[in-house]
Amino acid sequence: MPLQTSPWKALACARARVRAGTVIALALACLAVVLFAPRAAFAQTVTQTMGTSILDFTPSGGPSLHPNNVDATWISYTDCETDVQIYVPLTVTVPPMGFAYYGISAYATTISGTDCGISTNRSGATGVCWQVALSPGVLTAIPVQQATYQIRVRDLLRDIGQAAGVGLTYPNGGGTEAACHVAAQSGAIPLSLQFVIADHGGNEDSNVQIGLNVELIGPAPPTGITLGVGEGLLKLSWTPVSDPNTQGFNIFIDPLPGKEGLSVDAAAPVSDAKPPTIDVCVDEGVIDGGVDEAGDAISIPVVGMCHQVTVYEAGSIQTTACPSNILTSGVTGVIDSGTAVPVTTTLDASATTAGTNDAGFTTVVSGTAPTLVQLGQIDPNAQVGGGTQTSATITGLKDGYVYTVAIAAIDNLNDNGPLSVPQCATPSPIDDFYSQYRADGGLAGGSFCALEGVGIPAGTGVFGLIMVGACVALLRRRREQ
Amino acid sequence: VSLPRRGRTFVAALLTFAACGGLTTLALSGEARADDETGVLMTGHRTFESPQNFNIELRFSPYTPRVDYDPSLSGTPYTSTFGTSARIEFAMEFDWEALRIPHLGTIGPGLSLGYTEMSALALLANPPAPPKSPYSAENTNLAIYPMYAVVVLRADVLDREAHIPFVPYIKVGLGMALWRAYNDGGTSSVPNGSGGTIQGQGHTVGTQVALGLSFDLNVLDAHTAREFDNALGVNHTYVFGEAYVAGLTGLGQSHAMYVGNGSFTAPAWAFGLAFEF
Fold it and tell me: pTM for this structure?
């Protein structure tokens, strides 16, 4: 990299020209300073040598490292969320220049081929390298310092996607959690990290660049998702995905198995602010002329979750059954007016008989896609390994509860991609073969070779006798041979 | 199990035949070996053949358990769940040709173990009103492991002495099957009325009778057959078909699921390959 001169040195030269009036002489002097002084100061080029372990991620405290982060040159979404730091072992050698210490700083950029050692790439309207906090930032051991420098991942990601000249200076507090969401789409974002050493004379040098990859968003979710019900379980299936980055799937469900009906049963209390069952009352058709409730709209305020809605009739017929005569608390909607409101579901006309009521009619509604935080992730056993999988069974559920299920594809860094459209389902008891057999009067069962009645069945005894006899004969014959 | 007089007599005859055949086989097997070349009953073989003592069958059979034929049932749970289509049973049989009866064939005990399974979507206990499907997404399954011990008589005299490559045979003995009903959540169960559950698994004992015909493939390529014998000791390779009755109706059991296959009026069929060695 060519050696650089800082702006204030050029300014000093200009002042000198004005004071002395000897333009030519001073120009020559300045030229000498520019060309020779720095070169003399760094006659032996500053060397920066990376350590043997190149990069090492360690947590900044609290949570441990992401288990799937097997390649330290890749930064995942989880690395950012857990606010880890990368540790860079570096050996810096500077020639004895008489300065007490040297400064070392680090810059990052996503522009391929950009040399952050050039000052114009780090400042001004064309700057595309942003500074990241580095600790320690001062070289105290001259001429050779070996140190492990710490850089927060959030700092590295802070200005990804920013326009040139924006946010280049290291801000107070550094990168925040918002930096974990800077990527607009899945796929790797190349990132270059570069170290710059400067002395008090304004001279700089840089010869170490580290290539990193940032991947914050996993692959797209699968499509063609169906959710079937079983007894205490749900069966999720989807069409095969073609994205080769898909390494598996994470299944999200709310409420979490075993926490059904609790006020807080998932990661986010907001998702459980309402019970899973909501009663909605509609009129009996008085306002709209006693026809039916088709077209009556209801809106469920809880975003993203599935809820079972029970429709009651208001009015003279179902007054006692309808808790609040029109709509229950917490549910908004309109009756008959036709006024546009956020419609979550529309009552099924086929379930409505003209002139009668819809008492007891139930439907399940879902809102817009919930966030990952709103849905509780089920235990690691529910993680489906392999991008070619097309189904999963979620067990341990309770019959009669409405569950919201969504799926996200994960990449090799275990980053979740966008969530699929949530599905709603209610596990229900089944009438399997054995249940039907018993219901029809069958009495067999219990266990393999179960003793029945008193003693061992004669048939079993005869069978066993023949088996034992055959074995004895075989042994006898072998001995004779 | 209630059977008509004729049926009881037949079953008794089969059992007697099986018991006598088995005991005779056990009693005389050692003697026959000792008199390999000179005895009246011997495990003889032709001079160019390797010794022939055993037979292995790889069997494939359409299998329809006769669960619904249980007279104690008020409905047809099997057909209602799995329909009327037969499933395939895979089985293996090992026969010991312990004795050779001159100018007739071989006789000896045989053991078999098989496996078949049927699966279908389970009905919802509270199905929704049409047009919604009454089926759940959960599978209900019935796995059956049929096994039997029989006495096998193979009349290979036609093949050996008249060079007609057909070997009729008969098998008579006792059978048993382990069965397990399960769904996606594990083994099926029903409440037992006292707070516990009854697991949907058990065993059923019964009879096994088969009548079959083997075709000796050696006649198609005698040279290859002889090389097969020299290399692996396989004397004969057969394709066979047999009609059989797995009368697994709970012989001697108080409660049993009828998981057998075929009846004397509508026997089941099995096909496969057999290797004598």
Answer: 0.62
